[in-house]
Please model this.
Amino acid sequence: MSAIKSYDHPTNANQFNQDQDRTHWHDSSLWFIREKRDRMSKSLPEWETLRSCASQIKAHTVSKLADYLEEFEKNATARGVQVHWAKDAEEHNQIVLEILRKHQAKRIVKSKSMLTEECHLNPWLEKHGIEVVDTDLGERIVQLRQEPPSHIVMPAIHLKKEDVSNTFHEHLQTEKGNNDPNYLTESARQHLRQKFCQADVGITGVNFAIAETGGFVVCTNEGNADLGVSLPKVHIACMGIEKLIPKADHLSIFLRLLARSATGQPITTYSSHFHGPVEGGELHIVLVDNGRSKIMNSDDYRNSLKCIRCGACMNTCPVYRRSGGHSYAATVPGPIGSILNPLRDAKHHKTLPFACTLCGSCSDVCPVKINLHEQLLTLRTEVKNQKQLPMSKTLPMRIASYVFQRPKLYAWLGGIGKFFLRTMPRFLIYNPLNPWGRHREMPEAPPESFRQQYAQRAKKKSDDR
Amino acid sequence: MSSKDQILKSVRNQLVPSADLPSLDQDWIQYDDAVAHFGEVLQAVGGTAIAVEGIDGLTEELAKIPAYTDAKKTVSCVEGLVGTVDLDRVEDPHELEDVDYAVLPGEFAVAENAAVWVTDAKIRHRVILFIPQHISLVIHCAGGKVEEAVVHNMAEAYQRLVWSRNEFGCFISGPSKTADIEQSLVIGAHGARSLHVFFVF
Ligand code: SF4
Model:
């Protein structure tokens, strides 16, 4: 699958569905992870308590975010950390570039960070002659293929081992046709070790930052974040301002939820707590707003800032599973992406709130209890109010509303409809003007309408009397 | 106005209803046998837990691990056990690139998720936690009791932690792993390919 050019979710989803076997495979891979998550959540009797605590801690933090940001800066600075503030993606990228220039850094290793994806840091640095290597295996695979990640936790979930084998053969000279995941992972290990050893600076994201201590936590399974920042002297950590939590003890809640929700593991292999630079080195933290403070104001969408990026809502989403992450044409796909992206850029992402069956499964699994499906429904109204809906959605609704307000017309049209459904040739009913008929049979027309049945019943009753 | 002031102003300008913090004092899970549970979970995530008596017991068990006996370059930060490299004399952490085995101190273990808390308090280069091919973590059990070294859950774990120093700290649960290629679990992505946890009583 090459980079998708359209923002239109239905178009992209359609393209993904051309390969039916692959779609089924994608669907079941994600469902497998969803089931692991279920088993893990059931192993803890306090699961629901954890979810409510997490949700409340996040709600509290957002309500006093400015204070916590200041507290964080003060405590981090006291530990010798250099704190930077960026209003938007551009400023973030500029800050990172300046730090790299100061150290004449040419080679960078970066662990997974959705924020730097959101800011398009890689192309920006490459434009300035700096090599950036993504060190998470999944991210490295998609980076070599020049594709964006298709999932926030498993960036290469859309690829089969044959695809990875071909990519590695081309870029890392692995054996052609060797599809063994052990062999391929080992080759990536060797390749990336070189990159780790050559790196001038390591960049990471941040899973949680602690106001009380001025420290932060990064979680990985591979150990790539840690290797990337403990060899070079300079570490840059980039975080959205919503990643803050008040106290270190609150990590006990979030670390218990994160990996269980994400991949069905009891915890990630490495949960690293950074409190200050390495001996003789520098630690920089870039705090990024990029539209987050605006979302805070809205009662409808504020909750979306609670997201800890576990990916559970994607794994469970029937639409995501069958349309693939790239169909969302955004850094964060799936249910949470369908909220965050239109809030940031309604014009381009207007189809995303409709990439949803409103089944509510996302809200059920979300570890911080975001009311995802409700927000998606509210967003639809907004897209409509902004007159961004396509005619195919608005016109039938307008006609229906006109008809429903006129009972006589409704009755008359109902009769006509039944007649046509029964007597018309198939090609007149199943045509491009009827998207409902594309994948399903129209309902069989009943011999009598409800009105007719009701009238007969009433007549029979009065006759009986 | 600086970006910092702009962001803070923009955040302060928003009307956000106040919300209280929840109590962290709840009925968190307790296991009948926390030590045994730790061992089971560790095994499930690809590691091995072993209880040994004193440093002699440790040496004896290490001698049974091929990765340890075959190792050419080793590091030990555990008292009573020496490696081939003295970490304190290493100036540049890059020199540790080819360490085959490291035996490192862990502080305590968590039963619910098989995590061991480690810090770089007694380790000069923290990369030694991640760069060796194989790792053992050694936990000294207070009063000779293994139960003393294992807490039941993460809430208890954080109660044990203090943040006064600029230490690096990490919960490590099992060896490095990835499932990024078609969801097949592969042990040994970038960090250690195997992890043994020793409780020394
Ligand atoms: S919205 Fe909830 S389920 Fe989805 S990624 Fe964020 S925290 Fe996870």
In short: The pocket of iron/sulfur cluster is lined by residues A 261, 307-313, 336, 365-368, 370, 372 (CB under 6 Å).
